[in-house]
Amino acid sequence: MNTDDLIAQLSADVPRVRRHTVGWRLGLGLAGGLIVSLTIVVAVMGVRPDLSVAMHGFSFWMKWGYTISLSIAAVVVTAQLARPDSARLRWLWLLAIPVALLAGLGALELLRTPQGEWLAMWLGESWMVCPWRVLTLAAPIFVGLLWSFRRLAPTRLRAAGAAAGLAAGAFAATVYCIHCPEVSAIFVLTWYSLGILLAASAGALLGPRLLRW
């Protein structure tokens, strides 16, 4: 039997995979994890009391614009790495766009603020806990994505784990916004991003162990 005949025989009874299976699978895993993370924020951390007022302000949507756009870009990369044909990551550059835009806003903030207030603006009131809370909220979302990967076929396990961790961290930061009262772009760029990077690093470490199939 030649190679072509062997491949044809092995693939003859393989059921066809639906076109949007990867997206649906990742969506279900994300939704389950987000529900848990949102419950933690509401029941444990607490929703900021001025949320309805804050949602009419620029700073709140600045934070959500950053975290949501980063979440979308991270999910796109995760979906690519969930497939076996992930040698080329076509949309990886999307991750740089929200970071660059927020960095620009942060630079404008610094230009408009007296130097004596820079440190207070950068640290805010919660810099010591913000990254760790984002990482904590990312854990249920990462678990949901691990469940999604059970039916998928990643081959670059460390990269897939890092992408899943990045997506989990970005979605966790999005949920955390409803609790966090910080308003500075430079705060969000530093401490939110640190929490997201911690989640991505954890995903990179765990990926080769947990995504093996």
How would you portray this structure in words?
- This protein has 213 residues and is mainly α.
- It has one domain (60-210).
- The chain has helices at 3-10, 21-45, 51-54, 58-81, 96-112, 118-123, 130-149, 157-176, 185-210.
- The two termini are 28 Å apart.
Please give the share of residues in helix. over 70%
Q: Compute the number of structural domains.
A: 1
Low-confidence stretches: none
**Structural class by secondary-structure content:** mainly alpha
Q: What integer value in Å does the Rg equal? A: 20 Å
Largest sheet: none
Number of helical elements: 9
Q: Distance between the terminal alpha carbons, to the nearest Å?
A: 28 Å
**Mean pLDDT level:** 89
Order of helices and strands: HHHHHHHHH
Strand content: under 5%
Number of strands: 0
Summarize the helices and strands and which ones pair or pack.
Blueprint: H1 3-10, H2 21-45, H3 51-54, H4 58-81, H5 96-112, H6 118-123, H7 130-149, H8 157-176, H9 185-210
Helix pairs in contact: 2-7, 2-8, 4-5, 4-8, 5-9, 7-8, 7-9, 8-9
Keywords:
213 residues, mainly alpha, 9 helices, elongated
What is shown here, in short?
With 213 residues, the chain is mainly α.
